[in-house]
């Protein structure tokens, strides 16, 4: 787990996606091949840090590894470049959550393994409404 | 091309099989399927399973089962496609008989889920999704469907009671199904008042965890000249979509199901109106609704509303989930696609007892993996 996390650190820390050099379509998670034009030529690019909530849920039964964090608010956010990203929504009262709510990117702890184990960091979103 | 006949079926009841291992379950279902034809030695064994490595620390299920059945020498292997593992295993077995490569195939779906606690099972199920970009963030499979349900209700103005219709239909049918995990009817109000688990989804919107195995013996036509009501497989098609819902342009379209259904119906030479009985992948109330829409039984946004109007009830125009579906019969994931086919077989043979759909001739099963990332649609007919 630690190695697979390290491998994706730029994705998790900076929301580094990619862009097709032929048709300028942008992707997060990064695409291997452009889904619109099929081009193999894509370059890494940071995604915008603001967007709006397309849908969300308040998860009360969490997976192994996330014990003690429930409830977790998970959303799909459309960034200002149109790309959709899945992430947790934090620091927002549950009754303020709404589809269409503006959000911005924040850097947070995702989870840890134990008092002495790996700590995993990455992006989450916080609502601006 | 050979005609493919489902000669026999075998299955366990779905539920908490504390006293049985994954192999115990698979052997039990397989022996039931093989029993009516002691002279047929299957030429291939295909096992559908999603996460035996997680639940039982066991892989190599094909050879494990072949050895247990005294069928060594027989080619045997596992097929995995998340919750569509059973349907895909069926498709592979069907293709081998259809092509003439073999004249008989044993296909067995099995899943052991209850040895895991709920949070471990939730993690195992999340392996159907992107480990790097969905699971890493703490988003379980349940949460994806919760988000889908919110978007579905908001986009199409679907009410809470309309969303509750599919689970209520499932349980009504499961109440009288011998092999169902929950032989208990529930009302629309019961679903709508059950505890929130990933809102707007409530506990009774979601299929349960359960252990189970289902098996089928497929044969080419010449083995079955004596049977007066043969069940033939007319077609079976697999399709796939862009992996995660947030990567898709329209998150409310089940494109894989639409594509697989259109190809399966076309090859079988049928249209939607010809279908007499339907098994859809109701892992969640919202997935049942989007599935019937994608296959063309309901218009876009009308799936849950049509269920509330009675279209999919046992006495409706398109009887669905006739022995309880995933919600009521249960959803031992790698076996689910084969329970669906076995249940269509019971219907087409006229062995449905109180759950019988009278005079049915054409049955359709739809089994999905991920959020319609893989879909298998198969068409069966009584000859």
Provide structural commentary.
- The complex is a heterodimer of chains A (129) and B (383).
- Chain A starts with a helix and ends with a strand.
- The longest helix of chain A has 6 residues, at 2-7.
- Helices cover 9% and strands 44% of the residues of chain A.
- Chain A folds into 2 domains: 1-47; 48-129, Beta Barrel (OB fold (Dihydrolipoamide Acetyltransferase, E2P)), CATH 2.40.50.
- Chain A has 129 residues and is mainly β.
- Chain A is built from 2 helices and 8 strands, in the order ααββββββββ.
- Chain B is α/β, with parallel strands linked by helices and 383 residues long.
- Chain B folds into 2 domains: 4-116 and 210-224, Thiolase/Chalcone synthase (Peroxisomal Thiolase, Chain A, domain 1, 3-Layer(aba) Sandwich); 137-204 and 233-382, Thiolase/Chalcone synthase (Peroxisomal Thiolase, Chain A, domain 1, 3-Layer(aba) Sandwich).
- Chain B is 36% helix and 18% strand.
- Chain B contains 14 helices and 11 strands.
- In chain B, α4 crosses α14 and α10 (255-268) crosses α11 (285-295).
- At the A-B interface, β4, β5 and β6 of A face α5, α6 and β5 of B.
